[in-house]
């Protein structure tokens, strides 16, 4: 199932309240692209975030025929570098109109100074290596706490947390990772119990 990467397009006409809303809604690790202009600098300062100046985002009096496509390429290049972070684009209204015609042809600029666009992306891949290591760590913790806590408590709690995360669209990959870790921990625990049966004192 596909979800969407957020592209927040902010006009240089935005006021402080608009900028404050964008700042609060920006995801962790968002990248900000801005026209190297005084108006763009004002917006970036209000976002309290470092920015990547892009000369192509600067206003022009007579835009080339392919300007919209070149703007789209700049934004997509930064977006594709990390599909799981927000991208904020700061530019003048005319530049934004050309950008959105290509980036989101079915979406006209919003009535306000901030337009949100979603770029389709695939589901976030599950980090299998980290999930497996987490499972081993959970198994070790189960062994260490086995005298104080029933062995089934920790994996049950972890599995419940994984199922909750699995139901959240933006955290599905994390829920899958937790459930994989639980499965690995149970496998490690069973191997350890089988080993302790053959070699008493090993578990």
Q: Could you give the order of the helices and strands?
A: EHEHEHEHEHHH
What is the CATH third-level topology name of the largest domain? Rossmann fold
How large is the share of residues in beta strands? 5-15%
Find the structural class using helix and strand composition: alpha/beta
Number of distinct beta strands: 5
Described by the principal axes of the CA atoms, the overall outline is elongated
The N- to C-terminal Cα distance equals 42 Å
Largest sheet: 5 strands, mixed
pLDDT averaged residue by residue: 86
CATH superfamily of the largest domain: Phosphoglycerate mutase-like
Whole-number count of domains: 2
Strand order in the sheet with the most strands: 3-2-4-1-5
Radius of gyration: 24 Å
Number of helical segments with 4 or more residues: 7
CATH arch. level architecture of the largest domain: 3-Layer(aba) Sandwich
CATH top level label of the largest domain: Alpha Beta
Q: Unreliable segments (pLDDT under 50, ≥5 consecutive)? A: none
Helix content estimate: 40-55%
Transmembrane segments: 131-153, 173-194
Keywords: Membrane, Transmembrane, Transmembrane helix
How would you characterize this protein structure?
The protein is built from 7 helices and 5 strands; from the N terminus they run βαβαβαβαβααα. β2, α2 and β3 form a beta-alpha-beta unit. The chain is an alpha/beta fold and 203 residues long. A 5-stranded mixed β-sheet has the order 3-2-4-1-5, with helices on both faces. It is 51% helix and 14% strand. The protein has 2 domains: 117 residues, Rossmann fold, CATH 3.40.50.1240; 68 residues.
């Amino acid at each position: 199932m596909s979800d969407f990467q957020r592209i927040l397009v902010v006009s240089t006409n935005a006021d402080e309240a608009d900028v404050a809303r964008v700042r609060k809604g920006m995801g962790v690790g968002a990248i900000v692209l801005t026209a190297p202009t005084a108006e763009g600098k004002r917006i970036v300062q209000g976002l309290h975030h470092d920015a990547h100046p892009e000369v192509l985002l600067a206003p022009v009096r007579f835009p080339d025929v392919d300007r919209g496509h070149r703007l789209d390429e700049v934004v997509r290049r930064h977006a594709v570098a990390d599909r799981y972070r927000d991208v904020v684009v700061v530019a003048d209204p005319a530049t934004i109109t050309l950008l959105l015609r290509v980036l989101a042809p079915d979406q006209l600029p919003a009535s306000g100074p901030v337009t949100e666009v979603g770029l389709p992306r695939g589901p976030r891949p599950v980090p299998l290596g980290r999930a497996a290591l987490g499972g081993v760590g959970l198994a070790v913790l189960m062994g260490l706490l086995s005298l104080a806590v029933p062995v089934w408590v920790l994996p049950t709690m972890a599995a419940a947390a994984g199922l909750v995360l699995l139901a959240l669209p933006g955290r599905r990959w994390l829920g899958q990772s937790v459930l994989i870790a639980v499965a690995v921990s149970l496998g490690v625990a069973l191997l350890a119990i089988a080993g302790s049966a053959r070699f008493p004192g090993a578990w």
